[in-house]
Amino acid sequence: MTNLKTLFKRLKYNTRYLIKANVEIPSNFRVFERRNTNFHLFLLRECIPHTDGDTEIDLNKQIQIFGKFTDRYEISNDIFSNYDFYNKKLKPAFFNIADVKVPYEASRLQYLQKAKSGNIDVNKFSSIYWNSPMDVAIRNINLIFHLFNIESDRKIAEILGNNTDLISAYISQHYEFIINNLENKGNVVGNHYLIELTSILLTIATFNFESAQEDWQYYQNELLLELNRQFYEDGTSFEGSSHYSVFVTEALIICRLAIEEMDKNSVILQKIDKIIKSNYVFLSKLMNKGELSQIGDNDSGRLFYYAFDEDAPLKMNWLFEIIRKLYQKSNFYDEEEKFIYDIKSTVPSFNNFQKVTHRQIKVFTKDYQSYCFKDFGIYIWRNDDEYFSVRCGPIGQNGIGGHSHYDQLSIECFTDNSWILRDPGTGTYTDDIDTRNKFRSLDYHWGPKAKIQFPKEDEFDCFKLNYMSDGEILQFDKYNFLGFADFNGKRIYRKIVFDDGVVSIEDFSNNAEIEPYTSWGEENNGIKVKFSNGYKRIS
């Protein structure tokens, strides 16, 4: 019955797009006039620096897509499965067939930020390159970055012969496409629309054209609305993911530079500053050995690709360097203080509950501080070298799931220069639904060890969380944590106590069969089952 239901869903999904007209790629578009700008100097210096050292990166020899090398750029296929998308209708369903994100990733043109030689032929771009408006928006951002590089006389690869007039015209084509295909409809409007708005505002700040001022007012207002929708009161992102938090922070850095260029007195600047600074603190507390923990999804998407290390995809120090340069006079101490507070509420009696006690962990050898990111839903205890966290809070995208995982009450621990407990990462998305669901499952995280039968996930709901509630926090301070969540209707509480650097963990339930962890992940670098240190990079 399940297979039949899935078959009908697949037929319905594909039929909808078979009868729908293909996305129209603009053929008549405006030619934009370059503005006299200042903000591009910061981008060139801090966000897309292009060194003139000995290293030559050739577009035709040294391109990696999700860690895999390819010897050509204009690809239309999934290089992991060799499935070719070139002649496919736009917006088809490729669940369990191939990964459409691979040609999407190539379509972004992000490699132009690094390459010093090679040539990209836009005439070889397949229609799939226009499938995703967000990816078109990222390509447009990279075209503008490339234009800045041309103007600065850097040694760079070529697209459209690096003719600035042709590139400007190409950018105007992209702009026309983006504003006509905005992803601002549906149950959840998320990071896709935010990136599209970023591309629009960057374009207007860079060029002058007939509708520029009118467009600027409208899309700046749209950005303000999205900031209120997509970010919590404390400035953290509603996507439910640490790495998507980096992605949207990159976008807001670009937005800030563009808006300040156009209007230094814009009321939106203060809002953006608050969000960027909040995420500076939030993300910095999730860093260990220069790597960012993977809370929720990580699709390895970058706007400042120049700083992205394909061999160390979790390294994120470059982001903090950019933010510090953006706010040279800020020390971020005031911003950090707002995340240091206690939570106290009524604690239930566990007299009739099953209790399991897990093996203790020696974490802290010196003093530490506790941080409360209640809006995002993660609680952190750490010093410079030692780290412990527990996830407990809202499910991403206002309860839909989105880029959240089945990770309520899941813990991470880094001590003695090694991982004891570690989030598994993402693996992949729609090309392998089984892998997708395993990496976001309770079984792959260090949450409660419970015998709970979860229904089989619908492959068309692989960005929804149907069988887990929001986490609820009851107690939090430097020495204690107590919270709970429901897993397929089974409520489990987790209590954590810190005593002289030793962490004690207990779970309680009156309707779920729970078990203790008698060992953790010390022998496997903190990994419970498998680990993915970036999209498709599965150990």
Write up what this structure looks like:
With about 550 residues, the chain is of the alpha+beta class. It folds into 2 domains: about 1-335, Glycosyltransferase (Alpha/alpha barrel), CATH 1.50.10; about 340-525, no CATH class. It contains 12 helices and 24 strands. The chain has helices at about 1-20, 40-45, 100-105, 135-150, 165-180, 190-205, 210-230, 240-260, 270-285, 315-325, 335, 435-440; strands spanning about 35, 65, 70, 75-80, 85, 120, 160, 205-210, 285-290, 290, 345, 355, 360, 370-375, 380, 385-390, 410-415, 420, 450, 470-475, 480-485, 490-500, 500-510, 515. The strands form 8 sheets. Strands 11, 12, 13, 20, 21, 22 and 23 form a 7-stranded antiparallel sheet that branches. The radius of gyration is 24 Å and the shape is globular.
Poorly predicted ranges:
none
Rg (CA only): 24 Å
Summed up, the domain count is 2
What would you say the CATH architecture of the largest domain is? Alpha/alpha barrel
Main beta-sheet strand count, sense and barrel state: 7 strands, antiparallel
